[in-house]
Design goal:
The complex is a heterodimer of chains A (about 350) and B (about 350).
Chain A (H helix, E strand, L loop, with lengths): L5 H20 L17 H11 L8 H28 L5 H12 L12 H9 L2 H17 L3 H9 L8 H45 L10 H20 L2 H31 L5 H48 L10 H7 L1 H5 L1 H5 L5
Chain B lengths: L7 H24 L10 E7 L2 E6 L11 E4 L10 E3 L2 E2 H7 L4 E5 L12 H20 L4 E6 L1 H12 L4 E7 L11 H6 L4 H8 L4 H9 L3 H12 L6 H15 L6 H13 L2 H4 L2 E3 L2 E3 L8 E6 L7 H5 L10 E6 L5 H4 L1 H16 L3
The chains are: A mainly alpha (about 350), B alpha/beta (about 350).
Chain lengths: ~350, ~350
Amino acid sequence: MASNSAQDWMNQWQVLAQRYWDGWKSQGVMPPNGFGKPDANAPWQAALDQWTQLFGQSAQQSDLVDRVAANAKSYVGLMQSLLNTALGQEGGGSAMAWTEALRNGFNVPGMDPALWNNPLGAGFRDLAGQGAKGFEQLMAEFGRGAAGPFRQELLANLGMPAFGLAREHQERWQQLGAALVDYQEQTNRYNALILKASQQGFDRFQSKLAEREEPGRQLDSVRAVYDLWIDAAEEAYADIALSEEFRKAYGAMVNAQMRVRSLIQTEVEQQTRQLGMPTRSELKGVEKSVQELRRHLKAQQESAAADLSGEIAALRAEVAALKRELAGVKPAAKPETARPAVAKSTEAAARPAAASKKTKR
Amino acid sequence: MGPIRIEPQKALDEALKLQQKLSAGTQTLRSLDPVTFGVTPKEAVYRDDKVTLYRFKGTKAPTAKTPLLICYALVNTPYMVDLQDDRSMVKNLLALGQDVYLVDWGYPDGSDKYLTLDDYINGYLRRCVDFLRKSHDVDAINLLGICQGGAFSLCFSAIYPEKVRNLVTMVTPVDFHTPDNMLSHWVRELDVDLFVDTLGNVPADLMNYCYLTLKPLRLNQQKYVGLVDILDNKTELENFLRMEKWIFDSPDQAGEAFRQFIKDFYQGNKLLKGGLRIGDKAVDLKNVTAPVLNIFAEQDHLVPPAASRALQGAVGSGDYSQIAFKGGHIGIYVSGRAQREVPPAIHDWLAKRS
C-alpha cells in the first residue's frame, strides 16, 4: 500500500463494498451490518455466508458452494487482515508484522478458540466428512465429562473390581471407559503436533517473507501472499508428518480409536443379541463362509473346464489322427481304439491352448 | 524495504474480481449438468463376481495383435484413464492402434470383505488374462499396471511370466520404505489387524480423508480458493467437478486384501525385499522376465519417484526402460502434457517389442 494514504484506501474500500452490494441487492440480498468497513466484525466472511444462502439447501452444488465459501472465507480473512496492516504501516511493514497479520487473518471471529493460531487444526476439523461426525460427536460428549477435575475420579472408577451377576458387563464398560480416555490422550498428543506444525508454518512463512525483502522480489498481490503461506505451511507440516514422533502419535491415535470402536461394537452386539437380532459376528461368519464357497466353486468350475477342454483337445487329436490315416497311402491300416488315443493325448490335454495356438507376436 | 507491496488499486481489483467471480458463480453453478466420466465406448466382455473386463472401442480397428490390459488400483475407480474426451489415455492409445482392455474391480460390499490378494491376483486378474489369451489366441498379453494395480501386475508377472509379453508400470510403488513416502510412514505403526477386524471393509471416505491429509492445505483449501477463479467458466467448472467426482466416488476396500497389502507391502516391504506370497505362490521380482517400461511422476506425493525407481535392478528382465514424467500422480493421466507424451511413449515402446 505504497502510494495512497490510509484515508484514500479506506474510501476506496468503501466504494468497492458499495459496488459489491449493488450487485447483490438486485438479487434481493441485503448487506450485513458493518459491511465494507475494514475494522468491522468479519464483514466479508458474513457476505460469503449470504452468498451460500443464495443456493438454498437443495442445490445440486451445495457441497461445492459450502467448500468454496469456507475456503474463500480464509482467503478474504487474510485479505482483510493484510489490508488492516497495510493501513497502519503504509506498506513498509517487516516480515514479522506481516506474519502477525496473516496469523490474525486465520483467527476468524466466532471460531473455536482452541483453534486460534492453528489454521492446520481448523483445516483438519473442516475436512472431516459426515461419516466421521457421529463418532466425533460421541468423543466430544465424552471429552466434556472426562476433562478437568472429574478425570482422576473417572480413572479411579475404571480400575475398580467388579462383582456379582453383572460383573462381566461392568468389566466391559470399564474397558470401554479406559479406551475412551486413552483415545482422548492420543488425540491430544496428535493435535499438539498439528498445532506445532501450524506454528512452524508461521515461522517458515516469516523466513520466506524475509527472502522477499530484496528489491524486485516483493509480493504484489494478496493471492501471492496466500500462495506463499500455503507453501510455508505445507513444508512445515510435511517436516512434522515425516518425523518419528508424528509416526508414533498417528499410529497410537488410530489404534486407540479402533479400540474404542471395537468395544462399542461389542456393546452393540450384546444388546442386539438380547433382542434376538442377528449380530455383526454372526454376519461375519456367514460372509466368510460365502467367500470360501465362492473360491471353492470357482476352483471346481475351472478344473471342470480344464478337464472338458482337455477332453475336447484329445478327441480332436484323435479325429485328426484318424483323418490322416484315412487319407494315407495305406488304406488297410488298422484304426487305433478310442481309449488308448485319449490316454495318449493326456499331455496335450494339459496344455490344449498352447498346442493349437498360432503365435501372434 | 518490506516484503509485501500491494498497490491499493491492485488490492481493490483483486477484491472486485473475487466479487465478480462469486456473482457469476451464482449463475454458472446452477446451470451445470451432472458430470460423468468414462467417455470412450466400451463393451463388457467378461464378468467375474463384481469384476468386469471391458474392451474399449476406438474409431478404427486396432492394429496391435496383442491386447493391452490396464490393471488399475483397488482405490478409486479406473476411469482416470478415460476421464473426458480431451483427457483420455485410453482414447489416445486406441487412436495409435492399441487394443485396450481394462479391469474394473467394482465396488466391494460387506459380502466381499474376505476377498484376499490371492483372490484378486491369482483369481480375478489371472482369469481376465486367461480370457484374453484365449479370445485373442495368444500365449501372452501386454499388461499395463497403474499405482497399486502396478504392484499387482508385478506380482502377476512374477508368478505367471509366461502370460505376460510386455509389462508397463505407471506410478507404481516398489520400494515402500523410501524416506519421503508419507503414507508408508504413517501406517508403519498401524495395528492393521485391529483396524480391519474393527472396520471390516475400509470405507472410501476414510481412505480419501487420509489422502487429503497428505497435503491438507493445498488439497482442501488452496484448491477451492483457486476454484473461485473459474466460477464464471462453465467448461472449466465441469472439468473441475468431474475430477472432484472421480476423487470422491471411490470404492470401499475389501478388508482382507487391505490387511495383506498394508502388512506385506507397506509395513514389510516384501515386494522389494522378498518373502512375499500371494496365496500359495511366491513372488520374486527376478521372475519378471518380460520387457518392462516403468513410468513414474516426478512430483508424485502418493508414490514418490524413488519408490518407483527401485524397480530398476529388481526385475529379472534384461529389457528395462523408465520414463520420468514431469507432473504428479494424477497429472500423468489428465494433463495436456500427458496426452502428448504418455500414450505415444507406451505405444512406441510396445511397437518395438511386437
